[in-house]
């Protein structure tokens, strides 16, 4: 508005606002904002609303009913499937627990916490069976960390996989996790000198099992009983799960019932025939625990459509299993030029980091990209670099730069450039 | 266990674990942990569980059905009431949105976001009516902040008010809030030089109205549309609320429909006959916006009972409208001696801070207290100091040290010492 009448005022606002707001109004419906008619009084302002404790446990607005987890489709076994987080509808870094993605191998067990036990045995001085009451009495810590399935964006290996952010990147969430450091429990039972690996087993009927290096168990592994302030949800491991910050999601074994200390990795199904990375020469990368540095633009994405040219704030998420995100670069011209995005504080260790970048769309077709750099200096690769190094046979650990093509009609598609 | 056989090992574990775990086992059920019988296989491990997307929007375990918001009781108008957050059941610093306390004056309006408007007028250059689409396109920020009703712990003025943490301190929550800085919108409309205060009006049928100093509006006030990652819930202001970090909760006007810039405070009902602090001389403190430094032990609390002597981790929350918490002291002997508690990182500006303190209960009656100190050096006062300064006629801004008495039978009560 005034930016058109008074460029100086516009520029001052640009400098102070830091996001080109003078320009923001060009072409946006804000230009019609200064209206003559009075503010109307809506019907909901004229009668009392729903009572307090309408929902003793709160629920989303009925107008948000389409913001839910979604699955790619049915599977032969309904409990052996996954559901994705609607990242295109979310803001900030915390994922609401009701929208945290799922991946189960035999469905969601309904566990009575008073009957649940954790057995710790094998190469230990004092084999112990813990009740939930035993565990919750021990010293706890709370940490905000991302959780990502190693299969997230797995369909991008062979080219653009899906025209939806929820289905391409939705096996990703970030929560505040509270639990007992695994090192505390291992200290209680006493690891024997020859102990080097730990088998973690879930109480689901798939007996989900993974081998955990003792070094990780003693470093920062948690026995988690709470998520975003409340006890775990059934689909996330209630009443107890393992949590391994920065490692692939399935290793954070849900419904944890058993920890066995041994000398060697246990070579379970989920680390041999599954969750290994097939290479072009027919071999497989095994024990690819770490989730590599990655980012994605969550607005605008294929799940959205730009109605008109003008100002938009590009927003997205960056994360790394290596620690903290140091920088995110954004390109609005298909990678020809890059600019540094603003990182939302606090930037936390192995948590999602929200980035923002002001953009004025001129209405011409273009490609939007983000590129994350972590504190170790690792730079998120291009898809061509990743495929050159690993081929296209893997279903896991795809962490390349994501490209969104914006067409002149505002339709956004998944491309690789 | 081994701490009894081997004091050195016990002490090493104490030093490494930092929480006296050798001692932790004395009297705890962990001492019976090393069992001879094998780990039994529970029924839920023998059959497939619930399918993926059992709940497209997730819900708590049925075993947690008692963890809900609660109200002190009915009121003449069901929509003019409050519900409290079950702090005694929560962990970490994030409050799950479904458990964030409520305070409404005329119930919860069911607002269609496409029909909702925000009018900004009064002493502005460009009166503007914003749609939600207009607002969400503007640059946003996300911040983790506490929200507390100024009436929280109001029943403690005249002595111990209730034998429940949920009912004494439950008008308190902490979430990640995402919205547009109010300064961005005020810049767009252009505040006239004589503008000094802003009237904020809600779209509920009580037309909740408060006067906001322009300095606060330009400093860190937010027009919030998302909470813990998802859009606001109806009871928290869907689709738009004001948020004033560190100020009393009712000023963060929900269902925000109007902002009017004026020269003086507007002297609305909620800042004259209500939400002012009655003093002994019959006068009232007005515009007591800031929520002062405060803390409370959330475990153990009157909502719990200690079954046996032995190790417990005392845990609680501290917060201040002045910025960051610098230190929390804990006393386990009714204030005769104080020790510094561990603060859970990250310690954020005007967010809840979780503190933890290892404690071994010898079974004797005692009193537990916490005392917060903020970065400005302000020390949370004793109840006697607060009453001496302000009398007992106020219902608001009680921020004294909370004392929990532990009886020999493990029953915990609310006392003032």
From TrEMBL, chains A, B:
Cofactor (UniProt): Mo-molybdopterin
CDD domains from the UniProt entry: bact_SoxC_Moco
Domain Oxidoreductase molybdopterin-binding stretches: 105-266
An MF annotation (GO) of this entry: sulfite dehydrogenase activity
InterPro entries: Ig_E-set, MoCF_OxRdtse_dimer, Mopterin_OxRdtase_euk, OxRdtase_Mopterin-bd_dom, OxRdtase_Mopterin-bd_sf, Sulfite_DH_SoxC, TAT_signal
Keyword line: Metal-binding, Molybdenum, Oxidoreductase
SUPFAM superfamilies registered for this protein in UniProt: E set domains (SSF81296), Oxidoreductase molybdopterin-binding domain (SSF56524)
Residue ranges occupied by any Moybdenum cofactor oxidoreductase dimerisation domain in the UniProt entry: 289-399
Pfam families recorded: Mo-co_dimer, Oxidored_molyb
Protein name, UniProt field: Sulfite dehydrogenase
Gene: soxC
Gene3D superfamilies in the cross-refs: 2.60.40.650, Oxidoreductase, molybdopterin-binding domain (3.90.420.10)
Lineage of source species: Bacteria, Pseudomonadati, Pseudomonadota, Betaproteobacteria, Burkholderiales
Superkingdom assignment: Bacteria
Entry EC number(s): 1.8.2.1
